[in-house]
Amino acid sequence: MPDPASPHHAPSNHPPVATGGLGVLLVNLGTPDAATPPAVRRYLAEFLSDPRVVEIPAIAWKPILHGIVLRTRPAKSAHAYAQVWTEGGSPLAAITGAQARALQARLGAAVTVDWAMRYGNPSIPAKLQAMKDEGCDRVLVAPLYPQYSGATTASVMDRLGDALRTMRWQPAIRTLPPYHDDPAYIAALAQDICAQVAVLDFVPEVLLLSYHGMPERTLQLGDPYHCQCRKTSRLLAERLRDGLPRLRIETSFQSRFGRARWLEPATETVLANEARAGVRRIAIAAPGFSADCVETLEELAIRGREVFEAAGGERLGVLACLNDRSAGMEMLETLVRRELSGWL
Ligand SMILES: C=CC1=C(C)c2cc3[nH]c(cc4nc(cc5[nH]c(cc1n2)c(C)c5CCC(=O)O)C(CCC(=O)O)=C4C)c(C)c3C=C
Ligand SMILES: [Fe+2]
Ligand SMILES: [Fe+2]
């Protein structure tokens, strides 16, 4: 029987305590809550105010952001989002949620799997607190960016730091390292790309690997992103040579933003130049995106196709990202189990 006078007896106003749980928090970039200009504006305002994303001194950037970008871009971007919006909302959010559910099923009840977005909803602080409230005192945070960049991976860590700063009782944290050259990632991509190319109703002459771009200056400043993209392409090409020996493999960078010089070659330039040089059939994959999103479904599959066809191309096969299909989920399970070693 507990002795009420004992110093070890909990006072009657002691808050409830849950401990002993293990959490995995998948994180992707973020997306607007609706495909409307006001929702896109709120999302872009948060995203493009991050000094990790736009590395221009705030005193110069804020007037451009608020005076020009946030007045003009939301309507244009909302139109792009509206073309790819699903019943489950933004594709990026719907697919990231499906990935979390699939990983939960693979890891079982010993782990709580959830997902969050760096910008917009659900936020990293809200999901981290929810995990802690549920009793997770150890959490693996997994940014779903295979290639590291300051604008993506490091920015997730910044936000995680903000979240931890507000917590009295913090969970212990591990983070998933970038996996651009991990054999499990390269194998998943190779298997998934081969399977998708095999069911196209045409034989592509070129496989274009399109990665999200970054300002070229980030390369000079020491960001490893460009090298990691190139290495993924090299390893993937080596892996694909057996299955698709006659396919020429090229790399490009998409989604240029702003006036500065970006990593080259630009995806749309490559699509147009290939078509002008006589290539009629291209397959395009986006290995740097864990989930299909406006950048793949609208920029590649709608605008990219227009560019290719206008230059004389005939067939553009836009391959799906790994999403929540088995090749990608098996890879994610392998990476996550490795990082949980000693915890699980
Ligand atoms: C995969 C890695 C990504 C890098 C690197 C990246 C850098 C980067 N992005 C912008 C500006 C925009 N990106 C936008 C969308 C977007 N970007 C990524 C991923 C990376 N970005 C994803 C997954 C998405 C899709 C989000 C979705 O809701 O589907 C957008 C918004 C869309 C638009 O208005 O065009 C902008 C803007 C910069 C400036 C940058 C490098 C520093
Ligand atoms: Fe982006
Ligand atoms: Fe490089």
Automatic annotation (TrEMBL):
Q: Which Pfam families match?
A: Ferrochelatase
Q: What is its main location?
A: cytoplasm
Task: Give the matching InterPro entries.
Answer: Ferrochelatase, Ferrochelatase_AS, Ferrochelatase_C, Ferrochelatase_N
Q: Which pathway?
A: Porphyrin-containing compound metabolism; protoheme biosynthesis; protoheme from protoporphyrin-IX: step 1/1
Coiled coil found in the keyword field: no
State the family named in the UniProt similarity comment for this chain. Answer: Belongs to the ferrochelatase family.
Q: What job does this protein perform?
A: Catalyzes the ferrous insertion into protoporphyrin IX.
For this protein, the record's PANTHER family field holds: FERROCHELATASE (PTHR11108), FERROCHELATASE, MITOCHONDRIAL (PTHR11108:SF1)
- Identification of the protein by name: Ferrochelatase
Organism classification, top ranks?
Bacteria, Pseudomonadati, Pseudomonadota, Alphaproteobacteria, Sphingomonadales
